[in-house]
Specification:
By secondary structure, the chain is mainly beta. It has one domain. 8% of the residues lie in helices and 35% in strands. It contains four helices and 27 strands. The strands form eight sheets. Strands 2-3-4-5-27 form a five-stranded antiparallel β-sheet, with no helix packed on it. Strands 1-26-23-22 form a four-stranded antiparallel β-sheet, with no helix packed on it.
C-alpha cells in the first residue's frame, strides 16, 4: 500500500467511531394515518362509555412481537382508562383487545444523529374473540349496563377490557371470563398463531393471528390466581392473601427460539411472596407442563417484559414508573440477562424466595442510552413495556442484530404537566438498538415462517363473499 494511502486509512480508523454495544440506531413514531387522526383499522365506530373513540390507536407498546422480516405485532392493553369515567370498575370500558400489525421500515439515513430512519406503518387491526360464550358482568350496583358487547354474535364473543366481566364463582384464572388485559405477546414459529399473556387472570391464550379467534387456553398454576374477585383493583388486593396482585399479573411473555416453550413473568410479587421476588412461569406448549422460578427486583419497582435470547437465557425489562406521562424524570429502565439453566423450581414454595432467585447481569441501561443520545429524562416514556428482537441490519459495514423497544402511552396522544406546561406529543414510540454476537453471546434468532398478512387474509375472505369486522387498509405513521 502507498505510504499516503496507508496514513489516510490509519487516520480514518482513528476518527471513525466504533460501533457501541447496543447502539441506538433509530427512533420512530406511530400516531395514525394523518394529523389529528389516531384511529386504528378495526372498522369500529362510535365511542366507548367514557367518550373515547372505539377505534382509538394507542397503547401499542404494552407488548411487541417480531413476526418475521420487518413485520411486528403490537399489543395494546385493556383500553383507555386514563379518562375518569366510573371508579367502581376502575374507569375501564368495553374496549375490545386487539392485535395491531405494524411494518417497521428501516432506511439508512444519509444525515442526522442516528444511522437509520424508522417508519412504522399500521397495516391491520385484528379484534380478539372466543368461539364459545364468555362471562360478562351484569353491571348491577355499579352504575353501568351489561358488559356484553354489541359486536357479539353466535360463535363470536369478544373479549373486553371492562374489569367486571368475570364469573365471581370461579378463580381469576377461569378461561371463560370476558375481561382481558393483554400485556405480553409472541408469535408461533409457523407464523399462524400468537400467544398472549394478561394481568386479569393471569391468562395465557393462543389466538389465530389472521382472524383473532382464541384457539387454546393454557392452565396456569393455581397459586397465581385469586379467589375473591372484584371489578375494583384495590378491593381485590385487600380481599386475597394468595395469588397475583391486581393489575400486576403476567406482564411479560417470551417464546424460546425453537417455538416449544412459553416463558411468562409476573410484574410484581404474588401476595404470598416477599422481598421483591417475582415469579417466572415456563409453559411447555405441547404438554402444558409448567415450572416456576424466582426473579428478584434490584433496581425497578416491577418487570414489564421478557424476551428469549436462546432456549435457557432471557432478557428481562425491569423498570420504574417514572418519565413522560408521570410528570417526572425517568430513572430505572434496565434490561437484565438471566439464565434458567440449573435454576430451582419454586412452584411449591412461598415467602422469601431470594436465595432461590436466578442470577442477573445488566445488559442495557435504556434510560442512560437515551440520555446519551440527547433525550431529556423527563421526555423518556414512563412505561417502557415492549421488547422484541428483529431482523439483522448493516451498520458501518457490519451485520448486526436488532432489539426493538416500545412504550405504552396509555392512549394519550399528548401530555401536559409541570415539565411540559405547553404540552408535548406522547406518541407510540419505537426505539431500535443494534448489537453484535459479542454483545449478547449465545443469541439465537427465532425462525418464523412467512404467512399472509391479516389484510391479505381479509381480502381472501372478501373474495369469497365473507365480511370480517375490522378494516384492513394500510396506514403510515406521520
Amino acid at each position: 500500500m502507498h505510504k499516503k494511502t496507508l496514513i489516510a486509512a490509519l487516520l480514518a480508523a482513528i476518527t471513525t467511531p466504533a460501533i457501541a454495544a447496543f447502539d441506538l440506531v433509530a427512533i420512530g413514531d406511530l400516531n395514525g394515518s394523518a394529523a389529528g387522526s389516531f384511529a386504528d383499522l378495526s372498522g369500529l365506530s362510535g365511542t366507548l362509555e367514557n367518550g373515547v373513540a372505539a377505534n382509538i390507536l394507542g397503547g401499542l407498546g404494552s407488548g411487541l412481537a417480531w413476526a418475521g422480516g420487518n413485520t411486528f405485532i403490537a399489543l395494546p392493553d385493556r383500553g383507555p382508562n386514563a379518562v375518569s369515567y366510573n371508579s367502581a370498575i376502575d374507569d375501564t370500558t368495553s374496549y375490545i383487545p386487539r392485535l395491531q400489525t405494524v411494518t417497521m421500515k428501516l432506511t439508512a439515513s444519509a444525515s442526522g444523529a442516528l444511522p437509520y430512519t424508522l417508519t412504522p406503518t399500521l397495516s391491520a387491526t385484528t379484534l380478539l374473540y372466543s368461539n364459545s360464550a364468555l362471562a360478562y358482568g351484569s353491571g348491577a350496583g355499579l352504575g353501568v349496563g351489561n358488559g356484553a358487547l354489541a359486536q357479539n354474535s353466535a360463535g363470536k364473543y369478544y373479549f373486553s377490557g371492562r374489569s367486571d366481566n368475570f364469573n365471581a364463582a370461579l378463580p381469576s384464572t377461569s378461561g371463560n371470563n370476558a375481561r382481558l388485559d393483554p400485556e405480553g405477546i409472541r408469535v408461533s414459529n409457523d407464523g399462524k398463531s400468537v400467544f398472549v399473556s394478561d394481568e386479569y387472570g393471569p391468562y395465557v391464550y393462543q389466538f389465530d393471528r389472521a382472524t383473532g379467534a382464541r384457539t387454546n387456553s393454557f392452565a396456569l398454576p393455581a397459586n397465581l390466581a385469586v379467589s375473591n374477585l372484584s371489578p375494583k383493583g384495590d378491593i381485590e388486593i385487600a380481599g386475597n392473601t394468595i395469588g397475583r396482585v391486581a393489575n400486576k399479573g403476567m406482564e411479560g411473555l417470551a417464546i424460546t427460539p425453537d417455538g416449544k416453550t412459553l416463558v411468562g413473568i409476573m410484574q410484581a410479587p404474588l401476595e404470598q411472596d416477599t422481598k421483591k421476588n417475582v415469579r417466572i412461569v415456563t409453559i411447555d406448549i405441547a404438554s402444558g407442563t409448567t415450572h416456576q422460578y424466582a426473579y428478584k427486583l434490584t433496581t425497578g419497582s416491577g418487570v414489564s417484559e421478557i424476551v428469549a435470547i436462546n432456549d435457557h437465557e432471557f432478557l428481562v425489562d425491569e423498570r420504574d414508573g417514572k418519565g413522560l406521562g408521570d410528570n417526572s424524570s425517568a430513572a430505572v429502565k434496565q434490561f437484565f440477562r438471566i439464565d434458567l439453566a440449573g435454576a430451582q423450581d419454586v412452584s411449591a414454595l412461598s415467602g422469601d424466595l431470594s436465595s432461590k432467585a436466578v442470577g442477573k447481569t445488566l445488559v442495557l441501561d435504556f434510560a442512560s442510552k437515551l440520555s446519551a443520545a440527547g433525550v431529556k429524562a423527563n421526555d423518556i416514556p414512563a412505561k417502557i413495556e415492549g421488547l422484541s428482537f428483529g431482523q439483522d441490519i448493516v451498520v458501518g459495514g457490519e451485520t448486526r442484530h436488532t432489539l426493538y423497544v416500545a412504550n405504552d402511552n396509555d392512549f394519550l396522544s399528548s401530555v401536559t404537566d409541570s415539565n411540559h406546561p405547553a404540552g408535548i406529543a406522547n406518541p407510540n414510540k419505537f426505539y431500535v438498538f443494534s448489537f453484535s454476537d459479542s454483545d449478547l453471546p449465545g443469541y439465537q434468532a427465532q425462525l418464523i415462517s412467512a404467512v399472509p398478512e391479516p389484510e391479505t387474509y381479509a381480502m381472501l375472505l372478501a373474495g369469497l363473499g365473507i365480511v370480517a369486522l375490522g378494516a384492513r387498509r394500510r396506514r403510515t405513521a406521520r
